[in-house]
């Protein structure tokens, strides 16, 4: 993985070339930071500073009022509740969905690498392909199924949906990780008399820390950021943060409070952004494992 | 019935049979080594004894109990793995006692057994460490401790020394041999290293291509190899096998071999029945150490033949000097004393101990039996 | 392990456990993914409107779909969007990766900055860019206030150019990820090959053109597959950034499916469009996954 490797393909370059390289890298750095800057500075200034052409300026008057409003009193849909209840909706949905999909992924990865059977690769391929389908193809039957199961419009319905369409990736992570875990250890434990779950619990799990972090972060980010399922299946009191943010920004009534929109956007971005800052290494590892061979 | 019986056992993956009718009976206290190049089926056979791979046909019995389908942990066996397979998250002590814990042995007994084994292997000071903090030799000892503590009927070793450096490997080899002599346990040991096989075993099964090529004591395997594969696989440098024709002079069968200049040497066989091969081609097998200078020839041998041939290369190795010559159109190595007066390009009179020579049928590659 | 006659019950249970443990996940995937796919494909041949109904109409939904100008626009937009998005991300990702691989100081920090957009929701990205590109308050207004009176930048409100703002926001979000993929590829190249090429007198340009970039083939392939599947699935970003407008200028198949199924009550046509999306992704993903899984054996 890239973070531990020291090999680079550096070429011998002159001073001018190097200065140019740094300049380009710096300019792109600014490009990537630009929207974040816009969101942050405009979330702490009064509305008239924005409408007056000062979007790129630092605030003249610093105020946290847009944040307070976005959190607790902005009009979302019909009620002036702010994003607060939707934030908790997201939490209530994300925590169980992440936990369940990670546990299932770990067990699946264990079975698919250490208890191999005929056709296991095909089964895994089926699970993996499920991650990449355009989810439009399952929206209609899923809506019906959730209705039949009595889960329509509920947080648990969303949990189910996210578990189903997340286990492909969690299985992939654990499978790739356990594939390089020495099989001799499993055999030694078998001879020592440990059973299926004992081997998993006592031998594999204690060594699974890093990949569990990868899986948890990936699932957390993905589920928190999901919009399609939230917009399709959530009810009035289970809507996640992303859907609420979109409602806030798209609402056509009244004055557009851009500063509140930006504050709301940051609120929606904050959990995943924090996770990224604290454990970015694991996030990148998860991203890469989903594309190139882990 | 032996202590461990491998009875007409085969192994197939789908339609491919990778192990063909293996029949070995191991007595209690025996040290059986399965040796062969990689892919010969030796590890598969070991895993079948362990219960880690199932048996396609035939039976494996331990103490007359059929083991087919019995879970590995219920066979009363223990195994030492090539990578040692120490549980990385447990201390040495926990590693050693994990098997006992899984079998429901109470803690005080586990502790007692652990300390006994640790003192036997002199690893008491390591008990609280994690495997990651151990050297290769120490890991090896812990792996053996984990096997010993179970007091099993049969010990299985899967190339246990191949991850150690050369010196440590020799030390541990001695250690294992001492342990076997002291405890008198029954051991099945897999290796690709023929020296390990020779030094450790009471019996060797040489395997190749899924067949047991020969089963016998180290001396039998070395002196009377069943075929060309066994002859060249066991021994280092390998046995020289060169084409020769059989001639008979005064009733004595002779191997006629071509020398470097196209002239022929005539080497008398001790094995009389080779006279029947008169005029036919054979493959002549001569071990390097049976080609020497005249002074170093085996005095007990009754059949030393002389042969003048040109030296191509000399390779001093300290205790011996290896000399390469051309014989029968092939490179042949002789193992000389280090003070032998040998120079590349010179003609030299070699003494060949033909008492030890063997002959193979070139068609079947099997040794022509006396 | 085989079920031999003399295996005891516990051993047999142990042998069965792995499959038992796998089965809930497998059942979920079979029902919720493959079962649902079959159901949706079936619906695309029925007269479903507001609710699923099972009157068989054959290919009617598909022929209707292909006659809809709305669908045609969505496809045309998809073509423009996917071509630009994939090529710009690839070029940018490769370029930045090569630059970043020149023993750059603060590489870790730069990487962190380039990649953070991947951690954000498309709704957040869409909101930020929506207002930044808005001519009334965003870039145009700012530059005019700063004195550049004639400056015009109203792409997001312009039918002919709005799709390019979607490209811009999408590139902003994913190009750092593509950079990371190429960087990993670059780091995987054997340094000694490069030393040998330099000994052979290869110029920097030739070093990259002839030696390094050809060795990045797997990274190119992965980038293409990932980017094309993301392109086809693009939905949230359009909803947040432009809502498909102005007019239908930024409608994509994903938004088309959503509005036909849930707002216009044309479920049969929606299902038909979803089926076409699935087939397109399958045509790209299945050979890729097949090759990846085969190699791993």
UniProtKB/TrEMBL annotation, chain A:
<keyword id="KW-0812">Transmembrane</keyword>
<feature type="transmembrane region" description="Helical">
    <location>
        <begin position="20"/>
        <end position="40"/>
    </location>
</feature>
<feature type="transmembrane region" description="Helical">
    <location>
        <begin position="93"/>
        <end position="111"/>
    </location>
</feature>
<dbReference type="InterPro" id="IPR035906">
    <property type="entry name" value="MetI-like_sf"/>
</dbReference>
<dbReference type="Pfam" id="PF00528">
    <property type="entry name" value="BPD_transp_1"/>
</dbReference>
<keyword id="KW-0813">Transport</keyword>
<feature type="transmembrane region" description="Helical">
    <location>
        <begin position="262"/>
        <end position="284"/>
    </location>
</feature>
<feature type="transmembrane region" description="Helical">
    <location>
        <begin position="155"/>
        <end position="178"/>
    </location>
</feature>
<dbReference type="InterPro" id="IPR000515">
    <property type="entry name" value="MetI-like"/>
</dbReference>
<dbReference type="GO" id="GO:0005886">
    <property type="term" value="C:plasma membrane"/>
</dbReference>
<protein>
    <submittedName>
        <fullName>L-arabinose transport system permease protein AraQ</fullName>
    </submittedName>
</protein>
<keyword id="KW-0472">Membrane</keyword>
<feature type="transmembrane region" description="Helical">
    <location>
        <begin position="123"/>
        <end position="143"/>
    </location>
</feature>
<dbReference type="GO" id="GO:0055085">
    <property type="term" value="P:transmembrane transport"/>
</dbReference>
<keyword id="KW-1133">Transmembrane helix</keyword>
UniProtKB/TrEMBL annotation, chain B:
<keyword id="KW-0547">Nucleotide-binding</keyword>
<keyword id="KW-0067">ATP-binding</keyword>
<dbReference type="InterPro" id="IPR015855">
    <property type="entry name" value="ABC_transpr_MalK-like"/>
</dbReference>
<dbReference type="GO" id="GO:0016887">
    <property type="term" value="F:ATP hydrolysis activity"/>
</dbReference>
<dbReference type="GO" id="GO:0005524">
    <property type="term" value="F:ATP binding"/>
</dbReference>
<keyword id="KW-0378">Hydrolase</keyword>
<dbReference type="InterPro" id="IPR012340">
    <property type="entry name" value="NA-bd_OB-fold"/>
</dbReference>
<dbReference type="GO" id="GO:0008643">
    <property type="term" value="P:carbohydrate transport"/>
</dbReference>
<protein>
    <submittedName>
        <fullName>Trehalose import ATP-binding protein SugC</fullName>
        <ecNumber>3.6.3.-</ecNumber>
    </submittedName>
</protein>
<dbReference type="InterPro" id="IPR040582">
    <property type="entry name" value="OB_MalK-like"/>
</dbReference>
<dbReference type="GO" id="GO:0055052">
    <property type="term" value="C:ATP-binding cassette (ABC) transporter complex, substrate-binding subunit-containing"/>
</dbReference>
<keyword id="KW-0813">Transport</keyword>
<dbReference type="InterPro" id="IPR047641">
    <property type="entry name" value="ABC_transpr_MalK/UgpC-like"/>
</dbReference>
<dbReference type="InterPro" id="IPR017871">
    <property type="entry name" value="ABC_transporter-like_CS"/>
</dbReference>
<comment type="similarity">
    <text>Belongs to the ABC transporter superfamily.</text>
</comment>
Automatic annotation (TrEMBL), chain C:
<feature type="domain" description="ABC transmembrane type-1">
    <location>
        <begin position="75"/>
        <end position="290"/>
    </location>
</feature>
<dbReference type="Pfam" id="PF00528">
    <property type="entry name" value="BPD_transp_1"/>
</dbReference>
<feature type="transmembrane region" description="Helical">
    <location>
        <begin position="78"/>
        <end position="100"/>
    </location>
</feature>
<dbReference type="InterPro" id="IPR035906">
    <property type="entry name" value="MetI-like_sf"/>
</dbReference>
<dbReference type="GO" id="GO:0055085">
    <property type="term" value="P:transmembrane transport"/>
</dbReference>
<dbReference type="InterPro" id="IPR051393">
    <property type="entry name" value="ABC_transporter_permease"/>
</dbReference>
<feature type="transmembrane region" description="Helical">
    <location>
        <begin position="219"/>
        <end position="241"/>
    </location>
</feature>
<keyword id="KW-0812">Transmembrane</keyword>
<dbReference type="GO" id="GO:0005886">
    <property type="term" value="C:plasma membrane"/>
</dbReference>
<keyword id="KW-0472">Membrane</keyword>
<dbReference type="InterPro" id="IPR000515">
    <property type="entry name" value="MetI-like"/>
</dbReference>
<feature type="transmembrane region" description="Helical">
    <location>
        <begin position="112"/>
        <end position="132"/>
    </location>
</feature>
<keyword id="KW-0813">Transport</keyword>
<feature type="transmembrane region" description="Helical">
    <location>
        <begin position="20"/>
        <end position="45"/>
    </location>
</feature>
<keyword id="KW-1133">Transmembrane helix</keyword>
């Amino acid at each position: 993985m890239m973070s531990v490797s020291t090999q680079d393909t550096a070429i011998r370059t002159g001073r001018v070339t190097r200065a140019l390289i740094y300049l380009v890298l710096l300019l792109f750095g600014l490009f990537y930071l630009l929207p974040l800057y816009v969101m942050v500075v405009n979330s702490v200034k009064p509305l008239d500073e924005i409408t007056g052409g000062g979007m790129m300026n630092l605030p003249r008057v610093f105020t946290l009022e847009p944040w307070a409003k976005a959190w607790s009193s902005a009009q979302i849909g019909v009620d002036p509740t702010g994003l607060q209840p939707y934030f908790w909706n997201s939490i209530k949905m994300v925590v169980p969905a992440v936990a369940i999909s990670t546990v299932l992924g770990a067990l699946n990865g264990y079975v698919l690498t250490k208890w191999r059977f005929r056709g296991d690769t095909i089964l895994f391929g089926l699970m993996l392909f499920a991650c990449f389908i355009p989810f439009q193809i399952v929206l209609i039957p899923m809506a019906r199924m959730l209705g039949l199961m009595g889960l329509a419009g509920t947080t648990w319905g969303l949990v189910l949906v996210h578990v189903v369409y997340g286990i492909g990736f969690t299985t992939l992570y654990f499978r790739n990780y356990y594939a390089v875990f020495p099989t001799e250890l499993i055999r030694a434990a078998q001879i020592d008399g440990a059973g299926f779950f004992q081997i998993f619990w006592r031998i594999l799990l204690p060594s699974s820390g890093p990949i569990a972090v990868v899986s948890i972060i990936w699932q957390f980010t993905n589920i928190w950021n999901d919009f399609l399922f939230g917009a399709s299946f959530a009810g009035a009191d289970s809507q996640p943060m992303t859907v609420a943010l979109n409602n806030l920004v798209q609402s056509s009534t009244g004055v557009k409070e851009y500063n509140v929109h930006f504050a709301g956007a940051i609120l929606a971005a904050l959990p995943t952004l924090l996770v990224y800052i604290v454990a970015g290494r694991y996030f990148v590892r998860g991203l890469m494992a989903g594309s190139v061979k882990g | 019935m032996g202590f461990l019986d491998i009875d007409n056992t085969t192994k197939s993956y789908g339609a491919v049979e990778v192990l063909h009718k293996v029949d070995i009976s191991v007595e209690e206290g025996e040290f059986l080594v399965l040796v062969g190049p990689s892919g010969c089926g030796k590890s598969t056979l070991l895993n079948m004894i362990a219960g880690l791979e199932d048996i396609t046909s035939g039976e494996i019995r331990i103490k007359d109990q059929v083991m087919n389908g019995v879970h590995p942990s219920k066979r009363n066996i223990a195994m030492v793995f090539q990578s040692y397979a120490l549980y990385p998250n447990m201390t040495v002590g926990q590693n050693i006692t994990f098997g006992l814990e899984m079998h429901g042995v109470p803690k005080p007994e586990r502790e007692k057994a652990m300390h006994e084994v640790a003192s036997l292997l002199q690893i008491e000071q390591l008990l609280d460490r994690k495997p990651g903090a151990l050297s290769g030799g120490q890991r090896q000892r812990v792996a053996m401790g984990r096997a010993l503590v179970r007091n099993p009927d049969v010990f299985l070793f899967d190339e246990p020394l191949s991850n150690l450096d050369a010196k440590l490997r020799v030390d541990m080899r001695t250690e294992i041999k001492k342990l076997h002599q002291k405890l008198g346990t029954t051991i099945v040991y897999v290796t690709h290293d023929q020296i390990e096989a020779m030094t450790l075993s009471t019996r060797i099964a040489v395997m190749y291509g899924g067949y047991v090529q020969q089963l016998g004591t180290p001396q039998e395997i070395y002196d009377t190899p069943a075929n060309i594969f066994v002859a060249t696989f066991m021994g280092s440098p390998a046995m020289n096998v060169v084409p020769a024709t059989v001639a008979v002079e005064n009733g004595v069968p002779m191997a006629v071999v071509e020398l470097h200049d196209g002239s022929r040497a005539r080497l008398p066989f001790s094995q009389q029945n080779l006279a029947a091969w008169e005029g036919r081609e054979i493959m002549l097998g001569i071990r390097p150490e049976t080609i020497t200078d005249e002074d170093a020839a085996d005095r007990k041998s009754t059949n030393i033949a002389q042969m003048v041939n040109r030296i191509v290369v000399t390779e001093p190795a300290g205790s011996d000097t290896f000399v390469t010559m051309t014989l029968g159109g092939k490179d042949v190595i002789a193992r000389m004393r280090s003070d032998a007066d040998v120079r590349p390009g010179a003609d030299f009179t070699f003494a060949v101990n033909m008492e030890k020579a063997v002959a193979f049928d070139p068609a079947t590659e099997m040794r022509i039996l006396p | 392990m085989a079920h031999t006659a003399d295996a005891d019950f516990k051993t047999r249970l142990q042998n069965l456990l792995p499959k038992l443990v796998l089965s809930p996940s497998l059942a979920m995937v079979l029902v919720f993914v493959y079962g649902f796919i079959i159901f949706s494909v079936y619906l695309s041949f029925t007269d479903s409107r507001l609710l699923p109904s099972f009157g068989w109409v054959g290919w009617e939904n598909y022929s209707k779909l292909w006659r809809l100008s709305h669908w045609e626009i969505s496809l045309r937009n998809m073509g423009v969007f996917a071509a630009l998005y994939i090529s710009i991300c690839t070029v940018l990702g490769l370029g930045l990766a090569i630059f970043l691989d020149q023993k750059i100081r603060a590489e870790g920090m730069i990487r962190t900055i380039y990649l953070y957009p991947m951690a954000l929701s498309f709704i957040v990205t869409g909101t930020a860019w929506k207002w930044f590109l808005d001519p009334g308050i965003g870039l145009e207004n700012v530059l005019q206030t700063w004195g550049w009176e004639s400056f015009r930048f109203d792409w997001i409100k312009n039918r002919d150019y709005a799709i390019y703002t979607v490209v811009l926001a999408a590139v902003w979000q994913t190009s750092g990820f593509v950079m990371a993929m190429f960087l990993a590829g670059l780091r995987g190249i054997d340094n000694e090959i490069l030393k040998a090429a330099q000994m052979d007198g290869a110029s920097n340009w030739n070093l990259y053109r002839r030696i390094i970039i050809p060795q990045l083939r797997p990274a190119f392939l992965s980038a293409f597959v990932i980017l094309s599947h993301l392109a086809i699935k693009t939905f949230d970003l359009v909803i947040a950034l432009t809502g498909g407008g102005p007019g239908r200028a930024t409608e994509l198949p994903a938004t088309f499916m959503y509005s036909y199924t849930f707002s216009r009550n044309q479920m049969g046509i929606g299902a038909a469009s979803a089926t076409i999306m699935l087939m397109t992704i399958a045509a790209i993903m299945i050979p890729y996954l097949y090759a990846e899984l085969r190699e791993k054996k």
